[in-house]
Amino acid sequence: MQAVPARRRIAANVKDAALVGERRDQIVEAAIAVFRDKGFAAATMRDVGLRAGLSQGTLYNYVRTKEDTLYLVCDRAVAHYVDQIARAVEGVADPRERLVRAVRAVVRAQYDHRHNIAIVLREAHLLDARSREALRRRVDVFIDDIVAIVGAGTTGGPRRRASARLLAEAVTYLPTVFAMRPWRVRAEGPPDKLVDAMVDILLAALRIEQPA
Amino acid sequence: MQAVPARRRIAANVKDAALVGERRDQIVEAAIAVFRDKGFAAATMRDVGLRAGLSQGTLYNYVRTKEDTLYLVCDRAVAHYVDQIARAVEGVADPRERLVRAVRAVVRAQYDHRHNIAIVLREAHLLDARSREALRRRVDVFIDDIVAIVGAGTTGGPRRRASARLLAEAVTYLPTVFAMRPWRVRAEGPPDKLVDAMVDILLAALRIEQPA
Amino acid sequence: MQAVPARRRIAANVKDAALVGERRDQIVEAAIAVFRDKGFAAATMRDVGLRAGLSQGTLYNYVRTKEDTLYLVCDRAVAHYVDQIARAVEGVADPRERLVRAVRAVVRAQYDHRHNIAIVLREAHLLDARSREALRRRVDVFIDDIVAIVGAGTTGGPRRRASARLLAEAVTYLPTVFAMRPWRVRAEGPPDKLVDAMVDILLAALRIEQPA
Amino acid sequence: MQAVPARRRIAANVKDAALVGERRDQIVEAAIAVFRDKGFAAATMRDVGLRAGLSQGTLYNYVRTKEDTLYLVCDRAVAHYVDQIARAVEGVADPRERLVRAVRAVVRAQYDHRHNIAIVLREAHLLDARSREALRRRVDVFIDDIVAIVGAGTTGGPRRRASARLLAEAVTYLPTVFAMRPWRVRAEGPPDKLVDAMVDILLAALRIEQPA
DNA sequence: AATGAATGAGACTTCATTCAT
DNA sequence: CATGAATGAAGTCTCATTCAT
Question: How far is it, in rounded angstroms, from Cα A70 to Cα A124?
Fold first, then answer.
């Protein structure tokens, strides 16, 4: 595992760090709801403020711009997502087992965070270059980990045309379908079954015979 | 193959149908470039007009609203995409062969139209309900076809947890990674190799042994 | 009777005078309908063209500006109105009889032309100063005639506080209620009864005992 | 006297009710000046803002649309007008006396508010149906009162052809000449004399011998 | 630290008018 | 003489951001 690249620091008008954390939680939660509903560009800071129960002025004590708000949302989504997966493979030594665990964790996390992830996928490209790069770097480091896990976990298997890199891309991208086609999620029955099925597809794609 | 649902008709101020077609081509092309760059909401109709070489007023002789413009872009993307795949399986009887051809066609089409598709994926949810439904219906009919092809093409293979529906979803969704992570496309070498690798992954996911 | 002030001449692109007359009739008729419906400012020249069955370009061969169109409408309304009254008193010598005839003619004409008159009352002030003055001069000359008729027709009657001028104003203004409160017109029963009643009110206002 | 129908409530972005009242006074006053000058449709909200000393943005904190502004103007005109007359007849029992007072009050109010009333007469029909109806209902209730007063006040007088309703219409409409032909107002000498003369005309129309 | 009114730049859209065919 | 596509100026309205209280 590589060192995790730093998050961009967002300045606040308010000193009290605990308060900043608390208020930003409110703001991010409100922003997710609002951005999901209307899209980032059509959402207004007034919407966010109302939803968060904060006045416009107060909002701007914790966030410098509307874009900052989007960054906070994306940053938090990425952090939770990466974290959840890191914990899943922690202490697992067997390469094959590590891979299976990682795949399952990715699918699960994508399911759990599908609302935030929809925003990241659709709106992150609106961020300014620096924020976008900061986010991408963190995702890339994470994908590099997956690449390594895939590489180690598939050694000795049948030859294939796809690089470990592209396979890792498949593993991390396919489950975003939960975020991008939510009506499909709703149509597929209980979450656990959906997650199982998706894991099954991905392991097949990796040509791993999973323990029946 | 089912009957294709009708497109929504967009009214124009200009009567000459040929001219409308020509101008709308200009407009759609310009809009794709602009929307890709800034996102739909941040793009201005002035941008579109400038890029298309049309004055603001002229633009609005061929499109009633900014949203119409987005609809035209999405509509055209879907039309080209669906069409390309329909042609690929035309006249192919053997179920297995049909499936392989369909998969390859999907991957290829997603690669070719990745710029338009990026817009559809990110911005289509901003359309009004009627337009959105019109589009979705056409994609759904197409996915139904893929479901049937997948069902027929995988009969007799190993049992799997995923429904034909979810497999079809995987086939049609995974290649959108070309649109959503373009930097990955650029990193993977020549297009043909990328397409081959992606097809390989999908056939493995379907547990089809492809002809070496 | 004084000399009638000249109308403003509106230039046309087309030479054939008869054609100009015919087309302008179409245009005026269409404009009345459209202006009544939406008001002058909200009406578009396209509306007028469509209603008149003329293309935009053709329209502008007979009218130089939108304002010209309004002027034509007002001009025609005033002309018909004034004319109708002039004919009613023509050749009537007895002052009292002249007055009664004039009052009845005014009321009748206001009833008949109430649609056009609504436009004149509401929109004429939007004309440029020159057109407005040209119209007002013609109406003033007409009102002067009424003043004279009122003066002659009420001689020897009871003293009153109102000048002949103000009485003439009442005679010519009160019936515009037909144009400005059309729902009242509709509520008052058959036109003839309404006209009779209005005449009755005006003669009473003039303190003339009308021949029962 | 009947219950006065409710005004339409116009929403504001600003919470402080006192401030809303104050700013709207500014806005209405400015709007009257501007609308009178150019007509509602040709007037711009920039004009109104400049005249009111408010920025465009601020303006729209107190008014949601340009039409709202027109409604506020009309609403205020009607309110003042109706109120002024109600106060004039308050506590007057004798029917004849009530009628004379009412007539004088109508004339006076129409004179005082002639600027606003010009706008109501010319532009109110541009309001959306709901606003228009809200206004008309309030005026109709007022006219009903006048009808009752006229009916009671003329009992036992000479028979006439006009209904009490039409007489009431005359009483309330004729004085709008002050608004619609302002040059006449200016030509008729001091206001008091003009008001007296108009009252005289109306009482004659009602065939009431006024106390010399 | 919180509030919310004020600001003004800028977007979409309309439409009178022109002019090549 | 008729047509109708092109033009671009201008208007309404929104909203991120600021700042006095």
Answer: 8
Q: Which two tokens stand for residue A87?
A: 């914990």
Q: Which of B122, B184, B205 sits opposite A204 (nearest CB)?
A: B205
Pick the CATH number of A73-205 from 1.20.120.450, 3.20.20.150, 2.70.70.10, 1.10.357.10: 1.10.357.10
Distance separating alpha carbons of residues B27 and B72, to the nearest angstrom: 9
> Which 60-119 residues of chain A approach strand E with CB closer than 7 Å?
60-61
Decide if C188 and D163 are in contact by the 8 Å CB cutoff: yes
Exposure of A198 in the CB half-sphere (CA atoms within 13 A): 32
| Class of residue D95 by CB neighbours under 10 A (exposed 0-12, middle 13-18, buried 19+) | middle
Q: Mark yes or no for CB contact B180/A205 under 8 Å.
A: no
Note the pLDDT tens digit of each residue in A85-94: 999 999 998 9
CA C150, CA C100: separation in Å to the nearest integer?
9
Taking all residues of chain C, what is their mean pLDDT, rounded to a whole number?
A: 90
Q: What is the CATH number of domain B71-205?
A: 1.10.357.10
Region D92-105 average pLDDT: 93
Spans of all domains in chain C: 12-64, 71-205
D76 CA to F13 C1' in angstroms comes to 24
Residue B58 (CA) to nucleotide F6 (C1'), in angstroms, measures: 6
| Contact at CB, C166 and D42, closer than 8 angstroms | no
Per DSSP, helices labelled H in chain D are 17-38, 45-52, 56-59, 66-89, 95-112, 114-123, 129-153, 164-173, 177-180, 182-187, 191-205
Q: Residue D39 and residue C41: Cβ atoms within 8 Å?
A: yes
CA A19 to chain centre: 25
Same fold across A11-64 and A73-205: no
Find, among C113, C114, C115, C133, the residue nearest to C124 by Cα.
C133
Is domain D66-205 annotated with CATH 1.10.357.10? Answer: yes
Q: What is the CATH number of domain C12-64?
A: 1.10.10.60
- Does the CB of B66 fall within 7 Å of any strand E atom? yes
Q: How confident is the model at residue B153 (pLDDT cuts 50, 70, 90)?
A: confident
Mean pLDDT of the D164-180 span: 95
CA–CA distance, D39 with D9 (Å, rounded to integer): 24
Any idea what DSSP says for residue B206?
A: T
Among the listed residues B25, B18, B149, the one whose alpha carbon sits nearest the alpha carbon of residue B75:
B25
**Closest chain A residue to B39, measured at CA:** A126
Do D179 and D117 form a contact (C-beta atoms < 8 A)? yes
D59 in Cβ contact with D27 (< 8 Å) = yes
Name the protein residue, with chain letter, whose CA is nearest the C1' of E20: C57
CA torsion A45-A48-A53-A57 (nearest 10°) is -20
- Determine the 3-state secondary structure of C171 from DSSP: helix
- Residue type present at position D137: R
- For domain D10-64, give the CATH number: 1.10.10.60
Q: Which nucleotide is nearest to B45 (CA to C1')?
A: E12
D contacts of C178 (beta carbons < 8 Å): none
Asked if residue B1 has pLDDT above 60, the reply is no
CA distance B169 to B24: 32
Q: Which of B212, B205, B211 is nearest to B161 (CA)?
A: B205
Residues 71-110 of D with CB under 7 A from strand F: none
Which residue bears the tokens 């001028």?
A: C165
The pLDDT tens digits of the residues spanning A149-159 come to 999 988 776 66
Provide CATH code, domain A11-64. 1.10.10.60
Structure-token pair, residue B137: 């219906």
pTM higher than 0.90:
no
CA-based nearest residue to A184, from B110, B146, B166: B166
Which nucleotide has its C1' atom closest to residue B23's CA?
Answer: F5
